[in-house]
Amino acid sequence: MEDIMTITPLGSGQxxxxxxxxxxxxxxxxxxxxxxxxxxxxxAGLPFFDRVDPEQxxxxxxTHFHLDHAASLPYFTExxxxxxxxxxxxxxxxxxxxxxxxxxxxxxxxKGAGGELTQDDDVLYTEAELQxxxxxxxxxxxxxxxxLNLPSGLKFHALNAGHVLGxxxxxxxxxxxxxxxxxxxxxxxxxxxxxxxLPRYHTSPDVLIVESTYGVQVHATRAEREARxxxxxxxxxxxxxxxxxxxxxxxxxQELLLILDEYWKDHPHLQSIPIYYASKMxxxxxxxxxxxxxxxxxxIRSQMDLGxxxxxxxxxxxxxxxxxxxxxxxxxxxxxxxxxxxxxxxRQLFDRWxxxxxxxxxxxxxxxxxxxxKEIMNQPKEVVTMEGRRQPLNCVVDYVSFSAHxxxxxxxxxxxxxxxxxxxxxxxxxxEMGRLKGALMLQYNKLPENKRPTIAMPPNEVEVxxxxxxxxxxxxxxxxxxxxxxxxxxxxEEKKAKAVVEPRxxxxxxxxxxxxxxxxxxxxxxxxxxxxxxxxxxxxSRLHVPFVGKIETLRMFLGEMFRDIEETKEDIEADDDGxxxxxxxxxxxxxxxxxxxxxxxxxxxxxxxxxxxxxxxVIADSLVALIMHxxxxxxxxxxxxxxxxxxxxxxREGDKDNQSTAEEYLRAVHQAxxxxxxxxEATYEATxxxxxxxxxxxxNAPEESDVLVCAATVEFxxxxxxxxxxxx
Length: 728
What we know:
- There is one protein chain.
- The chain has 728 residues and is of the alpha/beta class.
- It has 18 helices and 34 strands.
C-alpha cells in the first residue's frame, strides 16, 4: 500500500521572503512558517494562502521571529478560518510580540504617509488581532517532543538552529515517516549564539526541507568579515562622514553591536564618535536577550556571571529619532531599522545622507530582491526617495555578510551528515538555488543510483509529491531485546556479564504487539506499562452451578475427564438446622492453574472460578456441562441411591385392609405407566399385577407385526414393609 506526501511552497519557492510551506500526509496538514515578503506591501506580500483551506491545517510551526518567517501569522490566524495549534520557542514568542507590534506601526504610518490613505488591506491586522494571535501561541523547548495524538501519529521536536535567538529546526514524525525542516540556520558559532545542531539520535529523515539562500557562495572567514566591517566604518567616520547600518531591531543587530562596542573599546581615538542604536524597541529587545542568556553560547553565559554583556559602553539607545531635529553635523554611526530600507528611520536617514560622498551605507545582512537595499548594492547613479524625487547616489555603499545563513560548504556538509532520502530546496533565489542543486547532483552522481536522494526546487504553488510504501515493521523493546545466553555458546560468561545482550538473527521473539499511531512495538507483558500507555489486567469469573449430588460423584466424573487434578479440603461446622455443608467439608478441585471447582461450601451449589482466557473459558464451559451431567446420569443415581428413611405405618398380619392397600399400589404403578406409554393393559390378582405395554416400532400406521409388547409383573410379597418384586 502506498501513501503520497505533498509539499507545497506557498512562499520562498525560488525566492527569498514570505517563507511558508504546506506539508500534507496521511490526512494531516502542517504549515511551516508564515512570513511576508519584505519587497511588497500589504496583501501582495503575503504567502499564497488561496491555495490552502485554513480549516484543514492541523498545526503551524514557526521557526524564528524574522518578519519573512512570521509576520503574516496574525493575518492567517485571525482573518481566516484557521483553527489549528501554533508552536514556537519561548524567545521567539517574546520577540514576535515586539517585532510584529513595530511592523504594525510601520504599516500604519505608511498607509497614512502624505495624507493619502491606501487600501485597508495594506494593514494586515490590528493591535487587537495581534494580541489575540499571540495568546494562541503554544511553547516548545529544544528537544521537547510534542505528540498531538492525531490518527497520523504526528509528533515533533525542536532543535537549535543557531540563526537568531530561539531559532529552531523541526524534526517531524508523521505516518511512519520523518521530515526535517531547517528554516534559516547557521553552522557557525558567533559572539553570542551557538551553531545549529544535528539530529543525532534519529535515523536519516525521509525528507529534508533546507534553505538555499547563498547557493554555492562561500563566506569569507569570520575574522576577515569583522575586519572589513570595522575597517569600512572607521574609514567613513575618520573622513568626517556618517555611517548608516540598516538592520532589523532584533537578530543580527545584537551581534554587530557586540563587535562594534568591542572595537571602540580597543581604539580610544574613535570613542569620541557616537554610535546610536535607533529603535523604539531597543531597551525591550535587550531585556529579552538578557532574559534568555542561558540559551546562548558559553561566552555569553560566563559573562553573565560578571555583568550584563549587552550593557554597552559606547552605544547609545535612541527610542525615537526625529530626522528634522537629529544633530548629524559630525561623524557618527547609526544602526536603524528596517534592514531592507523599505521605510522607517533607516530609509529617512538614507534619503538624507545618500548624496554626500563622505557618508556611507553598510549592508550587513542578506538583501532581498525588490528592496532598496538590494538595489543600491548594484551601485546605481540615482535613487528615488520616499517622497518620489530622484537624487544622486554619491555615498559609499558596501556589503559585508553577517547574515546567519549557511554558505555552500556548510550547507553541503550538513546535508551529507543528515543523509536524507529526498531533498527539497527552499528560501533562495532561483539562480542560486539552481546552482546549489547542480552542485549536489554532481556530488551524488558518484553514488550508486539506488542510494542517490531526489532533489527538488519547486517554485511557489507547485506541489512536490513523494510516494512512500507503508512500512510493516515493529521495534522489539525491553526484556525481549535481550537475547538469553545459550548454554552451548562459547561466550556464555561474557554475555552473562553484560547488562544487555543483543538478540541474534533467528532468535524467537514472543510478546505483545502494540500498534499506536502507525508505530508498532513488541514488548513482554511485564514491560507493557513501561513502553506503552497500556497496563496488564485480568478478568476473573465465578459461576454458581446447581449441584445436589455427592462430592464423591463429582470427584469420579472429574477424574474421568481430566488428569493431574489437585484436591484440597477444608473442614467446616454444620448448621444447627442440618442445612450445612457436605459431609466431606469444602473440597476444591484445581484443574491445572486455570480453573477451580469448589463444592460443599454452599448446599446444592458448586462454584466454578477461573481467570478469563481462551483456554480457561473452554475448560470452564466443559466443567459446567460435566457438573450438570454428574447429577442426572444413571451412574450418579446408583452412587447416590439409598433406602427411604421415613417410617411406613405397620399393618398387622391378617388385617382386612392388606388386599385393598396392595391394589392401590398396583393402580398407582398402572397410572405411572399410562402417563408414559399410550397403551397399557393391566390385570390384578390379589397382591399381584400384570402390565402389558404396547408401543409402535416406527411412526407409520403399524401392522400387527410391527407392534412391540413388553410385559411386567409387580407382586407385593410382604405388604407390611411395602416392598415389591418386579419382573419384566
